[in-house]
Amino acid sequence: MSDPVKVLVTGAAGQIAYSLLYSIAKGDVFGEKQPISLVLLDIPPMMAVLDGVVMELQDCALPLLAEVIPTADEAAAFKDIDVALLVGAQPRRQGMERKDLLKANVKIFKSQGAALDAHAKKTVKVVVVGNPANTNALVISKFAPSIPKENFSCLTRLDQNRAQAQVASKLGISNENVQRTIIWGNHSSTQFPDLAHAVVHVNGKLMPAQEAIKDDNWVKNDFIQTVQTRGGAVIQARKLSSAMSAAKAICDHVRDWWFGTGERWVSMGIISKGDYGIQEGLMYSFPVQIGTDKVVQVVPGLTISDFAREKLDATQAELIEERDCAFSFLEA
Ligand SMILES: NC(=O)c1ccc[n+]([C@@H]2O[C@H](COP(=O)([O-])OP(=O)(O)OC[C@H]3O[C@@H](n4cnc5c(N)ncnc54)[C@H](O)[C@@H]3O)[C@@H](O)[C@H]2O)c1
Ligand SMILES: O=C(O)C[C@H](O)C(=O)O
């Protein structure tokens, strides 16, 4: 067997982690032959709860779980890690937008950026989940200047999965028969879930999703709004933010980064290099393909309609505002 992959999960005593840790430890992400060393970071008041999580992981008697390291110490947590899954942050409650969390949460990512810079492997792959995810990811990348910018991402895979599931449900087909749904921009209610390039298999035939749906009003209104506001709808129903679906999306995101996507397109927040006219340096969700070398590349050459352009720019404008606000808090 190979050496363990060292995976840090922050917010390890929280609700997303409770679903996520089992999937990682049993081999859903890094494969059924890859041993895992799990590092679990949370804040000091949560250490007793974290002890319970550690007991449960032990009681799962999983063959791949080589070691579990619970800690409240950032330096110890980031030491020599291969993968950082940064979940730990306040979740939003009913009536809040994700950017309302900015003030509390950006400080966490500044401090963790310094720890990442000082202690992690330079090849570390970073996925930010804690909201507002794009801006937190941008903050941590700035405070970890020795880690290549390409190694930072934020989670928009949950939005992609939501979009895929909405289309599957509309057409009465299975989820695997819907491909190339795209999420552009911010993991917020300004994100643009885009079906212009999506394809579906219906009755054994591959066709553009919009041709199969035959309902432009649904594509341009109901679909977009449902995906944009799905996180809020879950909060309203559960009184807690999404956790099971978020954990599943994190697994999808990391597995695809680790092994590559092949011909599939997936959406993830990455630091813009200017593709599709998006300001360089912003953490923006694009459709990407990932090679077996773990290199992420934006899908090139997509036609952007006037309708799409407006949406791409609106979510970009929100990200610029969030970025400026985050850095003003950090400088204050
Ligand atoms: N990007 C996405 O798609 C997506 C989806 C769902 C939730 N989220 C976000 O993920 C975050 C976590 O959600 P949750 O439901 O697990 O919340 P939760 O409140 O159940 O758990 C968060 C955990 O983070 C811990 N924490 C707080 N500060 C920390 C720090 N500095 N270091 C380490 N741990 C810290 C808390 O003690 C808590 O145990 C929230 O910000 C939520 O909004 C993002
Ligand atoms: O919406 C939230 O605040 C939680 C999460 O980001 C989600 O999309 O479910």
How is this structure best described in words?
The structure is a single chain. The chain has helices spanning 15-25, 47-59, 74-78, 102-119, 133-142, 157-171, 209-213, 216-228, 230-238, 244-259, 306-331; strands at residues 5-10, 36-41, 65-71, 83-86, 125-128, 152-154, 178-179, 182-184, 192-194, 199-202, 205-208, 266-271, 283-290, 296-298. The protein is α/β, with parallel strands linked by helices and 332 residues long. The protein has two domains: 5-154, Rossmann fold, CATH 3.40.50.720; 157-322, L-2-Hydroxyisocaproate Dehydrogenase, Chain A, domain 2, CATH 3.90.110.10. It has a six-stranded parallel beta sheet with strand order 3-2-1-4-5-6. Strands 7-10-11 form a three-stranded antiparallel beta sheet. A three-stranded antiparallel beta sheet has the order 12-13-14. α4 runs parallel beside α5 (133-142) and α4 (102-119) packs across α11 (306-331). The mean pLDDT is 97. Bound molecules: nicotinamide-adenine-dinucleotide (NAD) and (2S)-2-hydroxybutanedioic acid. Residues 91-92, 98, 131, 158, 231-232, 234, 241-242 line the site of (2S)-2-hydroxybutanedioic acid. Nicotinamide-adenine-dinucleotide (NAD) binds next to α1. InterPro entries: L-lactate/malate_DH, Lactate/malate_DH_C, Lactate/malate_DH_N, Lactate_DH/Glyco_Ohase_4_C, Malate_DH_AS, Malate_DH_NAD-dep_euk, Malate_DH_type2, NAD(P)-bd_dom_sf. NAD(+) binds at residues 42, 105, 129-131.
